Automatic annotation (TrEMBL):
Coiled-coil annotated residue ranges, if any: none
Cytochrome c domain mapped to chain residues: 19-103
Pfam families noted in UniProt: Cytochrom_C (PF00034)
Full protein name: Cytochrome c-551
Domain of life: Bacteria
Keywords: Electron transport, Heme, Iron, Metal-binding, Signal, Transport
InterPro entries, A to Z: Cyt_c-like_dom, Cyt_c-like_dom_sf, Cyt_c_ID
Signal peptide: 1-21
Organism listed in the record: Pseudomonas tehranensis
Length: 103
């Protein structure tokens, strides 16, 4: 019985991943990201499409972007620092995955 329950639990967890990745735009709108970023145009920070282009094909880009989203960063796009954001690790991963899909 336990292996079946474990298999069902894991199956449910993995089946949620694609749906969560599609929630990137909704999550973006619910967080303070839009105060400094837009999808197409540079505001205080770079346009998200620029971030995606810069990181296209870069190994580990999703993990690095998720870390930058959660913890903040400085010097990647000029002198203006990006502050840490009030997101969970999972939300940061969702946002990073979504940003990397933008073209």
């Amino acid at each position: 019985m336990k292996p079946i329950l474990l298999a069902l639990t894991l199956s449910a967890a993995f089946s949620l991943q694609p749906a969560l990745a599609q929630d990137g735009p909704t999550l973006f709108k619910s967080k303070p990201c839009g105060a400094c970023h837009s999808i197409d145009t540079k505001l205080v920070g770079p346009a998200l499409k620029e971030v995606a282009a810069k990181n296209a094909g870069v190994a580990g880009a999703q993990e690095l972007l998720a870390k930058h989203i959660k913890e903040g960063t400085q010097g990647n796009w000029g002198p203006m620092p990006m502050p840490a954001n009030p997101v969970t690790d999972e939300e940061a991963k969702i946002l990073a995955a979504w940003v990397l899909t933008l073209k």
